Amino acid sequence: MNLHTIDTGLFKLDGGAMFGVVPKTIWNRTNPADENNMCTWAMRCLLVEDGDRLILIDTGIGDKQDEKFFSHYYLHGDDTMDKSLAAKGFHRDDITDVFLTHLHFDHVGGAVKRVGDKLRPAFKNAFYWSNKDHWEWATNPNDREKASFLKENILPIQGSGQLRFINSVDGVQFAKNFKVKFAYGHTEAMMLPLLNYKGHEVLYMADLLPSVGHLPMPYVMAYDMFPLKTLTEKKIILTEALEKQYILYLEHDAINECCTLQQTEKGIRIKETFNLNIL
Question: Most buried of the four, 13, 100, 169, 254, by CB within 10 Å?
Answer without folding.
Answer: 100
